[in-house]
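Structure ticket #2291
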Amino acid sequence: MEAEPDITQRAAQPYVGIGGWVTMAAIGSVADRIPEIFSWLGPRGIAPAGPPFFRYNIVNMEGQLQVEAGVPVASAVQDDGDIRAGTLPAGRFAIMTHTGAPNTLVAATAELLDWASARGLAWDVSRTEAGVKWGCRLEFYLTNPAEQPDASRWQTQLAFRLAD
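Resolution: structure written out below.
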């Protein structure tokens, strides 16, 4: 682990995103749609209020996952076609920044989960027939690949909501 994770209180955050149900093998197809969100924001004069993110809503590694790619915005907007408006929930989050290529995020996520477990922290999760439903499990992409072509230097912030 690069640095000790933090526990931070986050405020609710409006966002716009694109998502759906995918298999683990097709998960990149949703993240690859982040440029569509930026293309939707620009003509409407809406500036991003933070870095783009990937959100895991329901996780079933052997089946399908409900995921979305999104961009925070300053205030709520209306759904429009494939673009959906939502609000990331407020709450206590365990947050860790990871440096490395996207294929190293699985190991970084395991480190964050182990770190929380060792401290007796509980995640905001519930079990459903579809899989494990997360209250809010995010990957914020802090590095723009166009500005940093070396994927081993990309920074991603993991932010997972803790149970109340």
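Closing remark: Strands lie at 6-10, 13-23, 53-59, 64-72, 84-88, 91-99, 125-128, 131-134, 137-141, 155-161.
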